[in-house]
Amino acid sequence: MGEDQIVLTPSAPGSITLSSLLPQPTPHSPSLNHTLPSIPSNTTDGHNATPTPSPYVRPPKYHYFASRYSWIWISSTILILIILHLIRTTRHKKRLKQSLDRRRRQWKSARVSERDFALEELEQSKGGWVGRRVRALGAGWRNVMYMQGFPVWLYMPETVADAGFTVLYTVVYLFFCLHRTTSWFPVRGYENAANQLGVMSFSQLPIILLLVSKNNPIASLTGITYQKLNYLHRASSRVCLLTSWGHALLWTPDVWEAGDTRPYLLWGIAALTGFTMLWLTSFRFIRRMAWELFIVSHILFSLLYLIGAYFHWSRLSYWVWPAILIWAFDRCLRFIKVAYINKISPFIQSRRDAKKGKRPNRGPERGVKVELLEHDVMRVTIEREGWSWKAGQHAFISAPSLTSSPHESHPFSIANIPTSTSNAASFLIRVHSGFTKRLLHALHSDVEEGLPLLIEGPYGYPHSLDSYSTVVLLAGGTGVTFTSSHFLQILQNAASGRSAIKHLHLVWHIRHASHIQWIAPLLNLAAEYATKAEQAGAGVDWLVDIYVTKSPSADEPWPPNAIAEPERGGGGLESGLGLADTLLERIVTDPASRSPTPLSFISHSRSHSISHSRSQSRSHSRSHSPAPSYRPDELLTPKAQQVRIPLLSDEQDGYEGAQDGEEEEDTGWGMTMKAWSYVRWNKGRADLREIVEEDAREAEGAMNVSVCGPVQLLQASKKAVREVSTMQSTREGLMTIDFFEETLGA
């Protein structure tokens, strides 16, 4: 018999019974465990009678067991996610191995031409009738569940899948809350709905704290980053808040009528108040406008709820203690990481070194460089010995000298990848209010070294894109940090023969053309990797499309009929080749004629003067307008302060890159001519649908679209993939398109 069962046996007359020791029931008892029901009497008409042999057995409390049963549902959900992750990982590894094996066979067999190999691979990848139908079902499921969004309101779910999980989670928990209840209102009996709601709210505390922790084992097991699991955290928190309020409201009339003010009730009120305030300070607009307020309030109100819940009903402390331990373990582990990565312990100076004015060999200010790129954009470089990361991951940066809150740290995506010679992590940080603004004010010049910054991480599951045939990376503003790391990782792996990607396309929206210098060192490194990959026989056809959205050259209307309306939306510079080539020839051959030239013509002509196969095939497939009759002088009258592309020197033919042993000339924005040759300039905003469709039609295998940037870009990217990769187009042979979005800090 369990601990929740009590056996009451009849006693002799005049003896002390268990029922006489128990408190007598009151009409309105407010306790969570209501009073025992009346015990049947074994006497008749006041006369003694022989006791009956059958005892009265109190039934076990169902709500205690229901809270434990609910964890079977939670564990089953996590197990399903783990299995799906294993299936995806196995499929990607198999696809990568098959692609690399076919590439090796191509090099070994002289009888198979490159064209025959491409046709064979295309036929194998697209599969037969059954394979196309299966992919079509997958595309339909993805479009409905993950690519359909809701308006960005307060606490609205982001996708249909998010909404569906929230509804399912709520229904399952309400079933456990209401099943086998004896009463609703007024509260009567052991198994009343109020008690059951209260116990079920306790049972969710461990999973709520586990899902929000940065060092989350579920993220590693399921391949879902902790920021994605954060939605599950919010869903479970909402259900916990709902059940807590249900428990309180059902008990309120009895407690109010009895005038009960016992401490455990006051602790319950404190816990519910803390939970409600935690919810109110978690709305999206508060997170975006006052991140520090959100963090501080989240910690304080969470502690208030946990402490209040413990003292409200200590019999359920076995749910509270695991939650507190999970939170404390995550905090301690994060502190240890910060101390180890930043070498904080050797940071303490000796008195002798302090008198001599020596700085410590290691510390948070060593290996830190902050550059002011624009009035609202900084590039922060932090180098830490023995620290490493992978593409797509991020780290938290804190500055103890700039804040009074020891816990304050902010996540930023790492823009580069570690190399054999350097493990300095680079971040692009846009200045907002709060921490970033204080960091900006701490700069004494455009380049500042020695600021004491602490780094923590890396965090985020490192998704590998090497098994795909085509990868399209979409970025806006400083969101390029997420895509640039994948961009470099792909080319680095291709140089070492560990990537199956054949076409790599980066699309970046920036306000002004000069912003390309933000990632100029990364593009130079990418060009080096691409050269090595080509020499190793694993060349990647890569292209960088830059869309300038707010510079004068983008805002100024072009002369009528000078350049026809381009096919790619947003005003891509794919037209007017005759005029552009004429202008380029004039600038290169005649030094005296180097008058200020608009961004569009020079960049366009430079892009099309380069011989990369895919760019040429695309350009030739478009319909271009003939060269207009305008004189170049009429078109070379720019606005004041118009952004211009740096021009070539007289001696440089410009398009073949540096020769062996020669140093490549800088284009003026920190880019070598080799890297510059892969950049294609456009004005306005990109037509994402056309970009995705064009790359998908030419893809020879599975395709991935990854995006990071403003909410508008995320929504436009989803819409583009949804419209291109339909069930019908997939049945007709279009390859699978996987979609990934980075919503760091959203």
Share of residues in strands? 5-15%
Distance between the termini: 51 Å
Give the % helix: 40-55%
What is the alpha-carbon Rg in Å? 33 Å
CATH superfamily of the largest domain: Nucleotide-binding domain of ferredoxin-NADP reductase (FNR) module
Could you explain how this protein is built, in words?
Residues 1-59, 346-354 and 553-662 have low confidence and may be disordered. α7 (205-212) packs antiparallel against α9 (226-258). The protein starts with 6 loop residues before the first strand and ends with a strand. The protein has 4 domains: 1-60, no CATH class; 64-106 and 113-126 and 157-336, Four Helix Bundle (Hemerythrin (Met), subunit A) (Up-down Bundle), CATH 1.20.120; 362-459, Beta Barrel (Elongation Factor Tu (Ef-tu), domain 3); 470-628 and 642-648 and 666-742, 3-Layer(aba) Sandwich (Rossmann fold). It has 746 residues and is of the alpha/beta class. Keywords: Cell membrane, Electron transport, Glycoprotein, Ion transport, Membrane, Oxidoreductase, Transmembrane, Transmembrane helix, Transport. This is ferric-chelate reductase (NADPH). Residues 605-623 have a biased composition (Basic residues).
Describe the structure in brief.
47% of the residues lie in helices and 11% in strands.
Keywords summarizing the entry:
six-stranded parallel beta sheet; alpha/beta; 4 domains; four-stranded antiparallel beta sheet; Elongation Factor Tu (Ef-tu), domain 3; Four Helix Bundle (Hemerythrin (Met), subunit A); 746 residues; disordered N terminus
Task: Summarize the topology.
Elements: E1 7-8, H1 18-21, E2 56-57, H2 62-108, H3 114-126, H4 129-145, H5 160-178, H6 193-203, H7 205-212, H8 217-222, H9 226-258, H10 263-280, H11 284-289, H12 291-312, H13 317-341, H14 351-356, E3 368-374, E4 377-383, E5 394-398, E6 410-413, E7 424-430, H15 435-441, E8 447-449, E9 454-459, E10 470-476, H16 480-495, E11 503-510, H17 520-535, E12 541-548, H18 552-555, H19 577-589, H20 599-608, H21 613-621, H22 632-635, H23 673-676, E13 679-683, H24 688-698, E14 703-708, H25 711-724, H26 727-731, E15 737-742
Parallel strand pairs: 10-11, 10-14, 11-12, 12-13, 14-15
Antiparallel strand pairs: 1-2, 3-4, 3-8, 4-7, 5-6, 5-9
Helix pairs in contact: 2-5, 2-6, 5-6, 5-9, 6-9, 7-9, 7-13, 9-10, 10-12, 12-13, 16-17, 19-20, 24-25
